[in-house]
């Protein structure tokens, strides 16, 4: 299962938002990866990997998981909501 999301966070996934994103992902029942569109996916559990993506506001990312069930959908929903915060 995967979903494309446009990042609305004003500062993108840098420093503090990346740390909060990793903490949020760590509480989910399913492992999810994130990648810039067309890029190599990285684990949402790794703050360093996420920061190396260089995701900024307005960038499109792909959230993906190997699972295809209700937990996977709910996990992706939570991360999508995080990325779509505009303030």
TrEMBL record:
<feature type="domain" description="HPr">
    <location>
        <begin position="1"/>
        <end position="87"/>
    </location>
</feature>
<comment type="function">
    <text>General (non sugar-specific) component of the phosphoenolpyruvate-dependent sugar phosphotransferase system (sugar PTS). This major carbohydrate active-transport system catalyzes the phosphorylation of incoming sugar substrates concomitantly with their translocation across the cell membrane. The phosphoryl group from phosphoenolpyruvate (PEP) is transferred to the phosphoryl carrier protein HPr by enzyme I. Phospho-HPr then transfers it to the PTS EIIA domain.</text>
</comment>
<dbReference type="InterPro" id="IPR001020">
    <property type="entry name" value="PTS_HPr_His_P_site"/>
</dbReference>
<dbReference type="InterPro" id="IPR050399">
    <property type="entry name" value="HPr"/>
</dbReference>
<keyword id="KW-0808">Transferase</keyword>
<keyword id="KW-0598">Phosphotransferase system</keyword>
<protein>
    <recommendedName>
        <fullName>Phosphocarrier protein HPr</fullName>
    </recommendedName>
</protein>
<dbReference type="GO" id="GO:0009401">
    <property type="term" value="P:phosphoenolpyruvate-dependent sugar phosphotransferase system"/>
</dbReference>
<dbReference type="Pfam" id="PF00381">
    <property type="entry name" value="PTS-HPr"/>
</dbReference>
<dbReference type="GO" id="GO:0016740">
    <property type="term" value="F:transferase activity"/>
</dbReference>
<dbReference type="InterPro" id="IPR000032">
    <property type="entry name" value="HPr-like"/>
</dbReference>
<keyword id="KW-0963">Cytoplasm</keyword>
<dbReference type="GO" id="GO:0005737">
    <property type="term" value="C:cytoplasm"/>
</dbReference>
<dbReference type="InterPro" id="IPR035895">
    <property type="entry name" value="HPr-like_sf"/>
</dbReference>
């Amino acid at each position: 299962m995967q979903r494309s999301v446009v990042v609305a966070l004003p500062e993108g996934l840098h420093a503090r938002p990346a740390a909060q994103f990793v903490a949020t992902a760590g509480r989910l029942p399913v492992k999810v990866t994130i990648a810039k569109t067309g890029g190599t996916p990285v684990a949402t559990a790794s703050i360093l990997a996420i920061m190396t993506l260089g995701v900024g506001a307005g960038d499109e990312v792909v959230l993906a998981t190997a699972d295809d069930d209700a937990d996977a959908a709910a996990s992706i929903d939570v991360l999508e909501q995080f990325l779509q915060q505009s303030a």
